[in-house]
Write a structure and sequence with these properties.
The chain has 147 residues and is α+β, with helices and mostly antiparallel strands. The longest helix has 24 residues. It binds copper (II) ion (CU). Copper (II) ion binds next to β8.
Length: 147
């Protein structure tokens, strides 16, 4: 009897989370996700993709999580005193009906301290977390460069 009382509310909570996640997933479409093969000996690389906002409202990418490296950061590439530098940003805005492309020398997901050596064709899973509580799981193949 006690067991039933404890399990029941948890099942309910999980169901609510699942529904809100799948609703949000419809509003952002992910195209052509890929992860760059790191330079030999490097444990850091970039994740890239096209983010298409199909909704009436602005949506922000707040953070990225996954199991393949120690940390995922949202980075931009900006020119500081004539030199291109990477900088972490707190979020990434995708305006209503707009598209943001993460690509080399531009916005990217910095994958820091890869746990294992990765190879071309390997599939990397990461979860993108947006404001309004939605998230999307992305599977990105490892490529040498964007085709
Ligand atoms: Cu970076």
């Amino acid at each position: 009897m006690m067991k039933l009382l404890f399990i029941h509310p948890l099942v309910k909570i999980l169901a609510v989370i699942f529904i809100s996640t799948s609703l949000q997933a419809v509003e952002i479409e992910i195209q052509n996700p890929w992860v760059k093969l790191p330079f030999p000996g490097m444990k850091m690389t970039g994740g890239y993709m096209k983010l298409i906002n199909k909704s009436e409202k602005d949506i922000r990418l707040l953070k990225v999580t996954g199991d393949d490296c120690e940390a995922y950061e949202i980075h931009t590439h900006t020119k500081v005193e004539g030199i291109m530098k990477m900088r972490q940003v707190k979020d990434l805005l995708i305006k209503a009906h707009d598209t943001v492309t993460l690509k080399p020398k531009s916005f990217h997901i910095m994958m820091i301290q890869l746990k294992e050596k990765i190879k071309i064709g390997q599939l990397m899973k990461m979860t993108l977390h947006f404001d309004h509580g939605g998230s999307i799981e992305v599977t990105a193949p490892v490529k040498k460069h964007n085709p």
